[in-house]
Amino acid sequence: MTDITVTTDFNSDASLRDMFRAVAVAKLMDASNAWWGCSNANDRQKIFAFIRRCIRTDFCSPDLADFHYLYISSDEKLFKKILICPNHILLTLLPPRTAQNYSLRNRPHNRLHFSNNGL
Fold it and tell me: Is 25 exposed, middle or buried (0-12, 13-18, 19+ CB in 10 A)?
C-alpha cells in the first residue's frame, strides 16, 4: 500500500495569488449583482483600495486591478442567462417585451427601457 502525500508550497507567489482569487475575490463577487447597485461611490472606492493594497503587497496579480470589469461581465452573464432560460426565476421581474415594427439597429434585448429621471 502506497501513501500519497499532497504538498503545496504556499510560499510561492502563484499559490498565494491562486488562494487569494479563490477566497477573497470569490467573497467580493458573491452576489455582487445584488449589492453593487446599493453601494455608493465611497463603498466602491474602499473595495478598489483593498484590491490596490493586495496588488501592492503581492497577494494578487495586477490583472485584478479592474474589479469593475469583473462585475460588469458577471452582470452581463447573469442577464443573458435570464433572457435565454424561459423558466428562470428572475424572468418575471423584467419589464415587458416591446413590439418593434421598425428596421432599427440590433439591440441586445427586446425589453422596455425605463428612464432614471424620475418622470
Answer: middle
